[in-house]
Design brief:
Elements lengths: L3 E5 L3 H13 L3 E5 L2 H10 L4 E5 L7 H9 L6 E5 L4 H10 L3 E4 L4 H29 L1 E4 L2 E4 L4 E4 L2 E2 L4 H12 L7 H9 L9 H16 L6 E4 L3 E4 L2
Parallel strand pairs: 1-2, 1-3, 3-4, 4-5
Antiparallel strand pairs: 6-7, 7-8, 8-9, 10-11
Helix pairs in contact: 1-5, 2-3, 6-7, 6-8
């Protein structure tokens, strides 16, 4: 799907020039000739990038930028006839991602637009990958995926019951920590532990047996006698 860009400038000639160059690059272009109209377009449309002039009647570009940043991280390329360092710093501090001074080379503007879109796409992919990785715990050769409730040993699935999985995930989520039977019961079963309850012992025994069998004899869960169970860090 083509990226949708919003050009905000009260000078129709500049807006048209920018539109011609960006349309030639395959982008879908929307335009606004003042700040209020720009905010309306952003609410109505899935805008991927904003090219925003600072000097406009009514609501100026700096104010528009601040309003956008209240709710969105949409990349903003600010353009202005003001070329002082303080003006650039003000624009960037307000929330703009880049700043160009008029008159500008349209080809340079296209290059900067592409750069901003690439950067945004890369950041989105990185965040998605990081989010996916947060669900996965790697312990030795064992991979535990909280999202799919699956366990793999060297790409081979390890079949566990839901309770066994939750016990394993609990221990693996804090390697090195010793969990008592009471800790495990209350965190996994979500009920108050009572002394004669041997549920943890039974499920732990089955879990360890399955892991040792699937992991070719490799011991993952260790008993700390008189205290509880742990997975080494």
């Amino acid at each position: 799907m083509n990226k949708q860009l919003l050009i905000v400038d009260d000078d129709p000639k500049i807006a048209q020039l920018i539109e011609i160059y960006l349309t030639n690059e395959g982008y879908s272009i929307h335009k606004a000739n003042d700040g209020l109209q720009a905010l309306e377009r952003i609410e109505e449309l899935p805008i991927d990038l904003v090219i925003l002039d600072i000097m406009m009647p009514g609501l100026d570009g700096l104010s528009v930028c601040m309003r956008i940043r209240e709710t969105r991280t949409t990349p903003i390329l600010m353009i202005s006839a003001k070329d002082g360092d303080l003006d650039k710093i003000t624009g960037l501090m307000t929330g703009a991602d880049d700043y160009m001074v008029k008159p500008f080379n349209p080809l340079e503007l296209v290059a900067r637009v592409k750069s901003l879109l690439r950067r945004t796409s890369y950041q989105a992919q990185s965040q998605a990958q990081h989010s996916a990785q947060e669900h996965i715990i790697q312990v030795q050769s064992l991979q535990i995926d909280k999202l799919t409730h699956t366990v793999l040993f060297e790409d081979r699935p390890v079949k566990l019951t839901p309770l066994e999985f939750n016990i394993l995930h609990l221990l693996a989520s804090q390697p090195g920590r010793v969990f008592s039977s009471e800790d495990i019961f209350e965190l996994v079963w979500k009920e108050k532990y009572f002394e004669s309850n041997n549920s943890v012992t039974v499920h732990m025994s089955r879990l360890r047996e399955k892991l040792i069998k699937q992991m070719d004899g490799e011991k993952l869960i260790h008993t700390v006698w008189g205290v509880g169970y742990k997975i080494e860090g």
